[in-house]
Each structure stands twice: as C-alpha cells, then as structure tokens.
Amino acid sequence: MGRKRKSGEGTVRLRKDGRWEGRVVIGYDEKGLPKTKNVLAKTKGECVEKLKALKESISPATTSRVRADMPFGEWLDHWYETYSKPSIRPRTQRTYEGYLRLYIKPKLGSIPLNKLTTNDIQQFCAWMKSDDHISGNGIADSQIRNCYSLCHRALEKARTEHLISRDPTDGFKLPPVRCEEMKILSREAMQKLLIQAKEENYYELFLLELATGLRLGEIAALQWDDLNLTTGELRINKQAGTNGPDVVICEPKTKAAVRTLILPPSVLKVMREYRARVDSLWMFPSSKKEDSPMRPSSIHLRLHRILDHAGCDRVRFHDLRHTFATNALAYGMDIKTLSTILGHVSCATTLNTYSHVTDEMRQRAAVKIDRGIAKAEIKSQEEKPKERTMTTFQARKRWSRKAS
Known about the structure:
Elements: E1 11-14, E2 20-28, E3 34-41, H1 44-58, H2 60-65, H3 72-84, H4 90-108, H5 118-129, H6 141-160, H7 187-199, H8 203-212, H9 216-220, E4 233-236, E5 239-243, E6 246-250, E7 259-262, H10 265-275, H11 296-310, H12 317-330, H13 335-342, H14 347-353, H15 355-374
Antiparallel strand pairs: 1-2, 2-3, 4-7, 5-6
Helix pairs in contact: 3-6, 4-5, 4-6, 7-8, 7-11, 8-10, 8-12, 13-14
C-alpha cells in the first residue's frame, strides 16, 4: 500500500488518459470551500516534482504554518482570518476579536492544537466565571457561550482538516441561557411616549415602531423609496449598523428578514404628512451628519430620554418590538402572520418568544369553545371588554431635539 500523503502535501493520481495529475489546496473561498490548482505530467515522479514546485511558488509559508502541533492561538488566527472574518459584519468582527484577544488566547493560546482537551475548555470557562481574570468580575453567561462557540467552530474546522481526531468541545456542558426579561409598555405608557415624542420631533419614528415592530437596525436603515405612500407598502430589505463613527448599511442576516408590511391607514396618513417636511432620502436622517441616517445607538438613547421626560420607566428599544407583538396577539392576529411581519425564520421562534401571550389566548379560546358547546355564561369580569381610556398626560416642553 502506498504512503498516505500528509495534510497540505496535495494529491497525486493517475488519470484515465494515462497522465498523472497533482492537485493542491491553495486557499478557501468565502463559503469555506477549497480552491485548488493542478499540474499534469507523463510520470508520477515528474508530477510530484511539479506539484512541489507549485506549492513553493504559491505560499510555502502558509503550507508549513498549518500543522497539528501548532499553538491553538495560531490556529485561531488562521481560522478567523481565513474562514470567519470574511463572512461577518464589522461590529461582529470587533466583538470576536475582543473575545480572542482578551479571553481565549491568553488562557488557551499556548496549548498545542492537537493537545487541547475538554478539561482545558472546562477550566477556561470556569476561569471566565471567576474573578481572577482581566476584568476583575465574572463574565456574563452569554459571553462565555460566545467564547465557547468560537472555540467550537475553530476546532470543528481543525477536525475536518484532519489536524485533530476529535473536537474537545464535544460534550461540554454550557451555562444555561438566561434571556433578559421582556418589558411591555402599557397603553398609558405608549400614549405618554408618543405625546412626548411629538413634542421632541420623534413622533413619526416611534409611532412607526409601535405599528410595525421593526428591529432597531431596520428602522434606522429605512429610506423613502422603501415606502409606497399610495398603497402603504413598506419594504424591509436592509439594516443599519456601525463601524466606528460611520453608519453602515447592509443586507439582513436571514431571508425571512426581507419582507413587505402594510401600514395601517392612520399611520400612513402621518407618514405622508411627515414626508413633506423631510428633505432627505433617509426616512429618519441624522441632524448631525449630512446624507446619513440616525445611528441606531442614538435612537435607543433618544427613547430613554423621552421616557424619562414622560415619567415612564425605561425599556429597551427591542421592548417596543415586544409591545407590538404582544398587542397584535392580544387583538387576534394569528402566529403565522405575526411571524412573517416580525421577520422570524419560523413560527417556532415567535411561539417561544411570546408563549406568555399564547397561553392567555389558549385560555380564552377554551372559554369560547365551552361557551359555544355548553352554553356557559360569562362569570368573570375579566372576560368583559375593557373600556379604552386616554391619558391626561401633557408633554413637558423644556427639552429640544439635539443632534443625532
């Protein structure tokens, strides 16, 4: 049996036409698929020599650098630059680079790739949870999970490249996921928010959010070309992020996030009137930087200030999205429609996120079924429709809109 060639040496085979072909991987595309080059020769020995010359002319340093006993930190750098970085966004790049620089490489970087064990990963996560590292405080479970994910993806790629026999992160027990508590604005709080927002010239932004449940990056990226002022169709096909001081517009992460919504007539009327006052291609332009949308962080900060001025408890911008979804379900919208409006990949995501609302819906449905079958009477006052009340809140006028 012939000697098995080592990783990086390339392959040599006899073709059907009688010639020998040598092939070597010279790199990988943005999807992680190998890119190759080949040589042809009449004899195997000549083919091996040509293949060797080809490798030396392309990237001898890279070929020798990737090996099973290389330090894990070097493999992380190679994996990140080659496979991960080209496919992620600038903000995500900064996050990943911070995890690598501050946590993973200082503790695991010197261990040889093929000597890394599950116990090393376990001790690393225990260290992150303790008070013994750079920050002086235990790191959040979500960040531990993110660091684990980076290690897992890098090691899984090393396994598929036959640099290691198994991924040491397999079977590792991660900290449980702890979702941040969802906060829903009451009807009165929504009214106060909109009244104060109108005083501070942000009424249209927050009215649109409460009527559509858009993500922060999606609403920041809206342009007037995305809205048909006649039909009310609003096209969501991009989102805004940041790269240092600049706002960056990019495609949504999933196909489900590309969608078309129909604005309610009352909201569309407000947007038509607002359009006449805005001289920009952006729906919500920055007043600080010409021809640029508002920074997502500026919108989030503005929400907090308006809630403070209105005397309401602070919530995240994402909680306005939760408020929209909760109200939509409470007023009878079905899960499939809501999932499409929110841009979720599947209905399961919507069901898991808003299980508290769907539980109430199931209870109400059971009462209606019982009433229809057994002619049961309404005994609970909670089942009777509640009268809508309007707040008597008056906007506070001492604040003016600042540059965004």
